[in-house]
């Protein structure tokens, strides 16, 4: 049965970097723990979930200017250097930063599709590919924002890595409803109200998870909630109505920051899972140069066996 696995690649290589000892190094001293950790993650994911198609989704722009214009605090605390032209530079540990190009080279040599889009995050690439897919989709991420793409009818799930790649939580509509008290289709509305300090999104002051879930459950999407806040007969408590009204400008601006794009212009790509390295000579050169050892061997064996 066809199945598409969409990787939130940065989420995975950050997890690999912090989860695998930095003592793993190439002969020239370059750290390769994130590279080897990511290859091990791929081995586990492909072996356990047996996708027929796989895309490594890439952050061509981790903090798009259009989102910053809407909400200036968006990811501001993670900026290492502001750039007058092009994306700001993200604060990344130097020992990981040097490995990101190596990860890209390894994926290219393997023949795994790597897809990004100027002005968009990997989340938006994932949202677009999931919306266009004609097969079941599993999204591998540690980012709760992607719970909004979950859709049982279309077979779109999230494999949530919060407990590790070896202990994934399978997130479907029932899981989201049980965990947060909202339908997956309204998760973005819920997150908009609640806020997310890790992304620099304040949410509505005085509205936490329970209140946000209650508002979504009673009124529906953010437009309906704002309308209810302006309606004396809506049944919304006066103090809560005041909070929503005072945050109306923020809610209007932030809704497109929180929502994952589903209409990004993406290149046509071959999403098929490779059965062997697309460029064997280049792959072997990378394996030898960066001492990727058993991590490389196990992945190639797993690809051949699926």
Largest sheet: 6 strands, mixed
Outline type: globular
Q: Provide a count of the helices.
A: 14
Q: Report the uncertain regions.
A: none
Give the strand line-up of the largest sheet.
5-2-1-6-7-8
Radius of gyration: 21 Å
Indicate the percent of residues in helices.
40-55%
SSE topology string = EHHEHEEHHEHEEEHHHHHHHH
Mean pLDDT: 96
What is the CA–CA distance across the termini? 12 Å
Percent of residues in beta strands? 5-15%
The structure class reads alpha/beta
Strand segment count: 8
Description:
By secondary structure, the chain is an alpha/beta fold. Helices cover 45% and strands 10% of the residues. It is built from 14 helices and 8 strands. It has helices at residues 9-19, 33-49, 65-70, 94-97, 100-110, 122-132, 173-180, 187-194, 209-219, 222-229, 238-246, 248-258, 280-290, 293-305; strands at residues 4-8, 53-57, 79-81, 89-90, 113-115, 137-141, 156-160, 169-171. The longest helix is centred in the N-terminal third of the chain and has 17 residues, at 33-49.
Supply database-style keywords.
alpha/beta, about 300 residues, six-stranded mixed β-sheet
Mind sketching the topology for me?
Layout: E1 4-8, H1 9-19, H2 33-49, E2 53-57, H3 65-70, E3 79-81, E4 89-90, H4 94-97, H5 100-110, E5 113-115, H6 122-132, E6 137-141, E7 156-160, E8 169-171, H7 173-180, H8 187-194, H9 209-219, H10 222-229, H11 238-246, H12 248-258, H13 280-290, H14 293-305
Parallel strand pairs: 1-2, 1-6, 2-5, 6-7
Antiparallel strand pairs: 3-4, 7-8
Helix pairs in contact: 1-2, 2-14, 5-13, 8-9, 8-12, 10-11
């Amino acid at each position: 049965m066809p199945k598409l696995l969409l990787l939130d690649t940065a989420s995975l290589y950050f997890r690999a970097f912090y989860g695998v000892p930095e003592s793993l190094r190439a002969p020239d001293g370059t750290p390769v723990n994130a590279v080897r950790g990511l290859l091990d993650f791929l081995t586990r994911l492909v072996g356990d979930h047996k996708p027929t198609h796989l895309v490594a989704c890439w952050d061509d722009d981790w903090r798009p200017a259009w989102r910053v214009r809407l909400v200036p605090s968006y990811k501001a605390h993670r900026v290492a250097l502001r750039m007058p032209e092009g994306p700001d530079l993200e604060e990344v540990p130097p020992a990981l930063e040097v490995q990101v190009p190596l990860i890209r080279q390894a994926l290219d040599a393997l023949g795994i599709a790597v897809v990004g889009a100027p002005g968009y995050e990997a989340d938006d690439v994932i949202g677009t590919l999931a919306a266009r897919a004609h097969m079941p989709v599993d999204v591998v991420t540690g980012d709760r924002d992607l719970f909004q793409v979950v859709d049982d009818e279309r077979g779109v799930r999230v494999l949530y890595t919060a407990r590790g790649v070896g202990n994934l939580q399978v997130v479907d509509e029932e899981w989201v409803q049980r965990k947060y008290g909202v339908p997956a289709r309204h998760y973005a509305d819920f997150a908009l109200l609640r806020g997310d300090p890790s992304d620099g999104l304040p949410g509505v002051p005085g509205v936490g998870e329970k209140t946000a879930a209650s508002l979504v459950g009673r009124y529906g999407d953010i437009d309906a909630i704002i309308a209810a806040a302006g309606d004396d007969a809506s049944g919304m408590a006066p103090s809560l109505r005041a909070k929503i009204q005072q945050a109306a400008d923020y809610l209007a601006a932030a809704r497109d920051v929180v929502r994952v794009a589903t209409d990004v212009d993406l290149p046509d790509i071959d999403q098929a899972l490779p059965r062997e390295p697309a460029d064997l000579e280049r792959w072997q050169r990378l394996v030898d140069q960066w001492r990727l050892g058993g991590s490389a061997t196990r992945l190639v064996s797993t690809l051949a066996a699926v």
